[in-house]
UniProtKB/TrEMBL annotation:
InterPro entries: GSG-1, PMP-22/EMP/MP20-like. The chain crosses the membrane at residues 15-39, 123-145. It is a multi-pass membrane protein. This is GSG1L protein. The gene is Gsg1l_0. Signal peptide: none annotated. It comes from the Eukaryota. It comes from Pandion haliaetus. Keywords: Membrane, Transmembrane, Transmembrane helix. It is found in: Membrane. One of its GO terms (cellular component) is plasma membrane. Belongs to the GSG1 family.
């Protein structure tokens, strides 16, 4: 004996909720693909040596009066965390940016300049193809969810579409 069928209004509500979540994940993935804010934070980097008239806490000063002479022995009195500074950054697939400590603003580098010259083409295309495949699978899942939402046939057909949409969406993840 077959179970009692679910009313069409309940099916549409469930399909509508699934479509909304699928569409939201699609919007987030497209935004992430076009943004340079995939990850952001601070990273600890070594302070540069002070040059010329630079003052402040963002560089390491020498105790030598002849600081520009590379042959002079230069002692650094700072130890531990005093040799490091926290630099803010954000990165995405296209650009990686970090703040400039001594000035306002940030310095950005393209994704291509960060990879070794021998692997530039492969790494770039692998990353782009993987992201586009992810977006295409999410788009396919959202389209299938919208078909299920508007499709007024039997319950079994709706469940088949729902199952196929779920498989495609899981493959995207």
């Amino acid at each position: 004996r077959m179970p009692v069928s679910v009313p069409a209004a309940d099916r549409r509500q469930r399909a509508s909720a699934a479509f909304s979540l699928s569409f939201l994940s699609l919007v987030f993935s497209i935004t992430a693909f076009s943004s340079s804010y995939w990850c952001e934070g601070t990273r600890k980097v070594a302070k540069p040596f002070c040059t010329g008239q630079s003052k402040g806490d963002h560089c390491i000063r020498f105790n030598s009066p002849d600081a520009n002479n590379s042959n002079a022995v230069q002692y650094i009195w700072e130890t531990g965390d005093d040799k490091f500074i926290d630099r803010k950054f954000h990165a995405g697939i296209w650009y990686s940016c970090e703040e400039i400590i001594d000035e306002e603003g940030e310095k950005c580098r393209s994704f291509i300049s960060l990879t070794p010259a021998a692997d530039r083409g492969r790494v770039l295309w692998l990353s782009i193809v993987a992201e586009l495949l992810y977006i295409i699978l999410l788009l396919t899942g959202a389209i299938l969810m919208s078909v299920e939402m508007c499709y007024y046939s039997t319950v079994i057909d709706g469940l088949k579409i729902n199952a196929f949409s779920a498989v495609v969406t899981v493959l995207a993840g």
